[in-house]
Amino acid sequence: MKNILSVVVTMMLMASAAMAQNTKIYKEQGGAKEVVLSGGEIEVRTGGLIDMQAGSTLTINQAAQLNISAQPTFTDITVTYGIGTATGVFSGAVSAATINTGQGDAEAYLQNQNLRTTDNITFKNVAATYGVTAASGTFTGSTVLVSTAATSSESICLVGAVAALPASGYGKNCLAVLTSDNALYISTEAAAGTWSWVKVGAQ
Hints:
- By secondary structure, the protein is α+β, with helices and mostly antiparallel strands.
- The chain is 10% helix and 17% strand.
C-alpha cells in the first residue's frame, strides 16, 4: 500500500510538472525563477504596479528586447548598448561625455548662438591659424592687430580712416588713412603726436 501511494504521488508530481511546462508561464522546478515561454506575456493592467525595491535588478539579455509603447517616467536609466528611437524628447538636462549625430564623437561646449554657414556670428576673440577669407568684411574696434609672429612686438596694427592722426593709444607700426589727404601713414614709435607718423611713400 505504501509503495502504491508513493507511485501515485510521483505520477501526480510528474503530471503537475508536465502541465506547468505546457503553460506559457510557469515556476522553474527546483528553482526560484518564473519562466515565460515563447508567446507568453506578463500584462500589468491599469492601476497595476511592478515594484522593484532597492538592490533589485531587471536584466534583459542582449538578444532580448524591452518594447515600451507608452510614455513611462524613470528616475534614472543606465544603458550599455544605447537607446534607439525615431524621435525623442528629453525634458531635463542631458549629460554625456560626447555626442555623436552620425559624424563621429564630438565634445559639446556652451553655445548661445547659431553656428550655421548662413548665420552672423559674434565672437569675443578669434585665433585663426591659416587666415580668414571672406568676400567682404567689416572689422570694428579701435585697432585691428595683425601679428606676424608669436610675440606681440612682431606685428602691425590697422587703425583705419581717421580725421586726425592719433597722438596716443597706438604703438609702433600702426597704419592709418588720413581722410584730409587720403594718404596712408605709419607710426614709427608709440604715438605721442603727429610727428610719430610718417606718410607712406613720402621722400
